[in-house]
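Summary for the steering committee. One of the milestones for this cycle was to obtain a three-dimensional model of the protein with adenosine-5'-triphosphate bound, which we needed before selecting residues for the alanine scan. The sequence and ligand used are listed below.
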Amino acid sequence: MRIAVVPGDGIGKEIVPATLPALTLLDDAFGLGITYDVLDWGADRWLADGTGLPDGVLDRLRTEYRAVLLGALGDPRIPDMAHGREILLGLRTGLDLYVNHRPLDLAHGTVDLYRENTQGLYSQVGGAVTGRGRVSVALDECVYTRDTVERFVRTCLRRLRTAGRRKVTLVHKANAVPHTGRLWQEVFRAELAHVPELTGSEEYVDAFCYHLVRDASAYEGVLAPNLFGDIISDIGAALMGGLGLARSASFCPESGFALFEPVHGSAPDIAGRGIANPYATAMCLSMLLDHLGHTEAAVLLRDCVLETTHTDAATPDLGGAGTTDGFMSEVTALLTERLKGERPRPKENRP
Ligand code: ATP
């Protein structure tokens, strides 16, 4: 079981290496047989030799690896994020990772947010008329095919049913963006008819954002087109307590290949200071272990990460004075004790 580890840029280069000792510890303790390769994709490589996603790498990932753990992409030296687009959109579309699960872990429980990950306004269809150094006309097309919406909605409804969810909400803007809006509504209603365990509702994205902030406990499962899902997940991160807490997994159900990454970016404002919160990335690692079928190791890691947020090791974004490395050292120490049967688990251990 081989995974590709891409620290990327900014705080990704601090957070990802800090989480790897926990993976090694769990791998040894449970005999998981996971190996990983650290890959240097990111701004430094792009600026050095123009490489974003190296040639032929998608085939290698498909055949030799099961998953990718990605830190963050973004660098002030590349203001248009050209390298980030090539790497991230290249992985998402090249490996057909069309489902993006962004769980919102809130005080009342988790809202399962699912974002379509390959089309919509991220289709890269469009163009611009430029002249005299400026853009005068700009066009970004929102493209959705019925196949894409169908497979996404079907997969998400199945997963929500398996997770014991009872309610699912489609987020759209069919009143102002009628064509793709109607496609989503048609598909949602048709697919929902096959899943009687779920009660469906539909909301305009603006009203949904308002209601989510006022009372997120009204929601269990949420399905969103690409751009809406991206924006909602940042609102969700704010409700959770900050971007350092939001985890995400993108996957292709047919191939089983998956990409795990925190929702946050490279955070240039705090990069290099060793204070970024590794919580989201460590939780991504837990999701990755779960995805590979190592549920016990995944739950243990998740519990230890959660518990560490309530200690002095918590990072400044959570009101603590801890550091990235210090937080993960505490997680690893706690894992070691738990594996030896020392230090009992607290009764209440929630996000
Ligand atoms: P990018 O262009 O790479 O997306 P950004 O700064 O625009 O970077 P984020 O990286 O998501 O966007 O950061 C938004 C804000 O959240 C910043 O103030 C950043 O410091 C904070 N932040 C993001 N991730 C973390 C983290 N893991 N720990 C602490 N603060 C974080």
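Key point for the committee: The pocket of adenosine-5'-triphosphate is lined by residues 11, 72, 74, 243-244, 264-270, 276-277, 317 (CB under 6 Å).
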